[in-house]
Amino acid sequence: MSPEGTWDLTIATPVGRIEAVARLWYDDGVLTGTAHGAGQDVPLTDLVSDGDRLTWRQSVTRPLRLNLTFAVTVTGDTLTGTSRAGRLPASQVTGVRRVERAGAEH
């Protein structure tokens, strides 16, 4: 199943839960995406979809300046996995794909 869509993510970090929204789509056959959270929009890089596995990288500046690496498994409209920031312990990531309504703007 394609990972395309809008995903509501929850990242359980040692300092608390972070809510984010990831949008994934194919552009000329290339998986592309952005993430929004903590008042910032960032591009997703190195996006790879291999079967039910999905990986990507992103850089954030809030609440701290971090380079994050995500590795998740997509099962239907849910995903689970981890996010890592360098040598820090991995944080658990869960997500639910939003149901797009007919005629909804993208």
Structure characterization notes:
This protein is mainly beta. It has strands at 5-13, 16-27, 30-37, 40-43, 45-50, 53-60, 66-75, 78-85, 91-97. It is globular.
Write the layout of secondary structure elements.
Elements: E1 5-13, E2 16-27, E3 30-37, E4 40-43, E5 45-50, E6 53-60, E7 66-75, E8 78-85, E9 91-97
Antiparallel strand pairs: 1-2, 1-9, 2-3, 3-4, 5-6, 6-7, 7-8, 8-9
Summarize the structure.
This protein is mainly β and 106 residues long.
Query: How many helices in DSSP terms?
Result: 0
In whole angstroms, the N-to-C terminal distance is: 20 Å
Spatially, the strands of the biggest sheet line up as 4-3-2-1-9-8-7-6-5
Strand fraction: over 45%
- Major sheet details: 9 strands, antiparallel
Oligomerization status of the protein chains: single chain
Global morphology: globular
Helix content estimate = under 10%
What's the Cα radius of gyration? 13 Å
User: What is the mean predicted local confidence, pLDDT?
Assistant: 92
What's the count of strands?
Answer: 9
Q: What is the ordering of alpha helices and beta strands?
A: EEEEEEEEE
Low-confidence stretches: none
Structural class: mainly beta
